[in-house]
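Proteins fold reproducibly. Take a tokenised chain:

. . .
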Amino acid sequence: MAEKSGSICFFDLESTGLKADYNSILVGSIKPYGQPAKTFSVVKPGDDKMLVRELRDELGKYTIWVTYYGKMFDIPLLQSRLLKHGMNKLEKKHHLDVYFHMRAHTLTARRSQAHLLTWLDAPEQKMTLSPEVWNQVLKSPETGLRILKARCESDVKGLEALYNKVKHLVINITR
């Protein structure tokens, strides 16, 4: 029902690192179910104030968020950056973290989204990046951000493909 109503979205972030006090968000993609991704990015690395507001406002339009390890990374990072900028936090929504459902219902050697997409022969695969690409964002922001936007969009497309393969395993969606 949520899929048909357009109230479910897939969400992913790319950032300069893993901790909100020393790092910032560079790119975020939100993909409504069955629709093209909406991608937001900074103009200048390190200045994510407008980006986090845009992401918060866009996520607020959906009833259910689907992430991959988003309960432990994407959502806390976005909440922390909103706090840093003195902005209102994300509204509480239903959140399906595919990572935790896969961990609970499957026994695989690896749990990365890339591995699961390959293992399940999903129509989308995760875009991999070399470590040098991440450094390029600071050297050449225009080129680096273009690559990270493509990566983030690849991640939400892959996440939707993974969701479609495993949604029958979902017992409940927490809030």
Remarks:
- The radius of gyration is 16 Å.
- The helical segments are 2-5, 49-59, 74-84, 98-105, 113-119, 131-139, 141-166.
- The beta strands are 8-15, 25-32, 38-41, 64-67, 94-97.
- The domain at 2-99+107-168 is CATH 3.30.420.10 (Nucleotidyltransferase; domain 5).
